[in-house]
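Can't attach files on this board, so I'm pasting raw text. These are the components:
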Amino acid sequence: MTTALSIRDLKKTYANGLVALKGIDLDVEQGDFFALLGPNGAGKSTTIGIITSLINKTAGKVSIFGTDIDADFATAKGFLGLVPQEFNFNGFEPAEEVVANQAGYYGIDRAQAFERAEHYLRQLGLWDKRREIGRNLSGGMKRRLMIARALVHEPKLLILDEPTAGVDIEIRRSMWKFLSEINARGTTIILTTHYLEEAESLCRNIAIINGGAIVEHSSMKQLLAKLQTETFVLDLRAPLMQLPVLPGHRVNLVDEFTLEAEISKERSINALFSDLAANGIEVLSMRNKSNRLEQLFMNLVDGNHFPAKHHETGAPESSA
Amino acid sequence: MTPRQKYVAFKTIVIKEVLRFARIWLQTVLPPMITTALYFVIFGNLIGSQIGDMQGVRYMEYIVPGLIMMAVITNSYANVVSSFYGSKFQRHIEEMLVSPVPNYIILLGFMAGGVARGLTVGVAVTGVALFFSHLQVHNIAVAVSVVVLTSILFSLGGFINGVYAKSFDDISIVPTFILTPLTYLGGVFYSIHMLPSFWQHVSRVNPILYMVNAFRYGFIGVSDISLYVSYGIILAFIAVLFTVALWLLDKGHGIRS
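---
Top answer:
Structure tokens for the assembled complex are below.
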């Protein structure tokens, strides 16, 4: 399989002495939907900035579809589309011109540029707003405008830096659907986001960056498999005044209608339900207390050892 | 990129730049027309009638080329400095930076935008001048080539200013404290032969003097400076400013971290 993005020993030290990247390695395969996660200041935007030429690297190699950016950045940039974190279009230009001009920078004739602008503005539900200047669009529309602009030259690799930040859930879900569709049609996508459920539901592979270093680089399945426990919230039918003894389970009574249960990966959730039923406790509904990826993420970026390592070093899994 | 794609990219930047100043013509094209009309009324008609002839022509006819040139210089410079700084401020310069368009095409595009505004204003001001004077043309090729080259030169100057500018104040410092004084002292309103010998020599350090005089030669066939020297100076400045501007862009000064 072709590698869409290959990064080797990438380093960046800013003029003020800040070491943003300490020599990262990263591979993204063609066709992948890849999550690049990390807390604020971890080095995500610096990495994206270097890939897209907005930031000069200090050392290391970056290749995009086999083209080294040091050897032929123009060709490499032709493969890329970028949706940046912050709005960076001319707020005084009509939406249609923002998109068509971007096509022009890639050498696409003006007539064809406007045809493509129409295509993508229609796909993203912005055609009715094509004559509206950028600054008059809502936040969600601005995000979609930047996606249309990034796609207008039909890039093979689309990089989205927090594309759904600040948009409502309805638009966010429609954007997820749209991104899934273009990924299914063959566009490789790299996504950074602070909505971890977004990364979990969309992405097949993941890298987590923290303090300028990659702390995890694997498939989403492999990563989630490392999660040793999950915490569920159980809503009860009848009020419960006192929690019965439930040997082997770690359960807390949050309020009279709510239980929190931490389920170990080695244990069956059926056992808990059996014990609850045996004590006459009827569960109405159940949900994850937090996103699974979020739990892993917090473990990694807090500097704690990975849950698997807890297990390896003999960290006990006590019961309530 | 193929040469054809580069041409399309260049054309796109030029169209974007022209539409930018055309949309705000009340701020970009109209004010210099009004300002120049006032110059014509006050200096040309009211004061000029007391001055009489200058180098064999009416004072009004003498100052027309200088005033046109002043408008071209100011507007070429202002267009590029404000557009480029604006694109940095709003960060939409990144649209070009992430694309494969080469830096020299970006520079040429902004420069062409500045020339387009400079010439548009130049033509508009010439139109105003026709209401006040009988505009004669001694050598159209010299007039056109000098005004285009001067517009290129100051567009490049505006670009460099835009690269270094870190605030909106920075884009007005050079026009206010350097460009305007140099233009006024560049022989727009007088012949340097009217100055004492010392100040004539000092005036020759001012590059705008060469542009105004060469342009004036194109209209009335009179110049304080040799035409060849003027062309040489203008072309040398263009070469230096283009090289510096491209170097700054390649280095990513003020636009890449």
